[in-house]
Design goal:
Elements lengths: L9 E9 L10 E9 L5 E4 L4 E4 L5 E3 L8 E3 L1 E11 L1 H12 L15 E2 L1 H15 L5 H21 L13 H14 L6 H8 L3 H12 L3 H19 L5 H7 L5 H12 L3 H7 L1
Antiparallel strand pairs: 1-7, 2-5, 2-7, 3-4, 3-6, 5-8
Helix pairs in contact: 2-3, 4-5, 5-6, 8-9
Length: about 280
């Protein structure tokens, strides 16, 4: 936690394995940003305006109501960046700006998971300014707090849509592509053939495949060739590396060696000595 003696704002980073249920009332306004998450299931929260579910994904924030007990449940772990603001002072600042009572921020702020790059960047800059304070840091933090409050008030009037999940191949499409790669082994199917197997255009296929498998289609094909080569080297010790290379569809032994080392970090001969 960072809290210079003459500042009212505190900030910090925390890792928790699971959300804490039945949180006691906190007199401060907490803005909690998810920096990283390994959550497998949806989390649930209730900050006083009804229970809502949300996927705990990076760049999203939750804002409990000051002075009200809250409930949050969900397995992590989560890496969080949080900002604590003195609600009494913040409340008077907002009421003065809006010229009306403001017992809490708009209800929408407290019953949704908020994705907003402006809030995310402002919180990161607050953390940086308070972690390495300098003469002008209090002015910087004060300005960033105003930015965050302004965005939260704006969100209360017009919800900011969460980013759409990136599309992936369906399990059926992915299986069809893998089946084609296995069927065509040792030859390498073309990108057009792989896209046809998935039933999508070539333009979309590479992006969808990478979102599904984590690597490009051609990288995946090379991985399968290397796996086939490893199996042959284990089960056919009498085969030369040139024969393995030919059987797995590589242009020659030199091409095979370069590709093998690129994927595994060692040459085929060195790998054989390790097993």
């Amino acid at each position: 936690m960072n809290k210079p003696d003459d500042w009212d704002v505190t900030t910090g980073v925390t890792r928790i394995n699971s959300a804490i249920s039945n949180n006691p009332a906190n007199p401060e306004l907490a803005v909690v940003l998810c920096v990283d998450s390994q959550a497998k299931e949806e989390a649930k929260a209730d900050f006083g305006f009804g229970r809502f579910g949300f996927d705990v994904r990076p760049r999203g924030a939750v804002i409990p109501i000051p002075g009200v007990p809250s409930t949050v449940t969900g397995d992590g772990p989560y890496d969080l960046l949080w900002l604590m603001l003195p609600w009494e002072g913040i409340q008077s600042r907002i009421e003065s700006a809006l010229d009306r009572p403001m017992p809490h921020l708009p209800a929408q702020v407290h019953r949704d998971f908020i994705y907003d790059s402006t809030i995310e960047n402002a919180m990161s800059q607050c953390w940086s300014a308070m972690s390495q304070p300098h003469a002008g840091a209090p002015l910087v933090v004060d300005g960033l707090v105003n930015v965050i409050l302004g965005r939260l008030l704006q969100f209360g009037e017009t919800p900011i849509a969460a980013p759409k999940r990136r599309a992936k191949l369906s399990s059926r499409q992915y299986a069809a592509v893998v089946d084609l790669i296995e069927y065509r082994s040792p030859a390498s199917p073309s990108l057009d053939e792989l896209a046809d197997a998935a039933g999508v255009t070539r333009f979309h296929f590479s992006r969808l495949f990478k979102q599904t498998a984590g690597v490009s289609p051609m990288h995946f094909v090379q991985q399968r060739k290397i796996e086939r080569a490893q199996n042959l080297m284990r089960t056919r010790p009498e085969w030369t590396l040139a024969a393995v290379a030919f059987d797995c569809g590589f242009a020659d032994q030199s091409h095979f060696t370069r590709t093998f080392k690129k994927h595994l970090g060692v040459s085929p001969s060195a790998w054989l000595h390790q097993i």
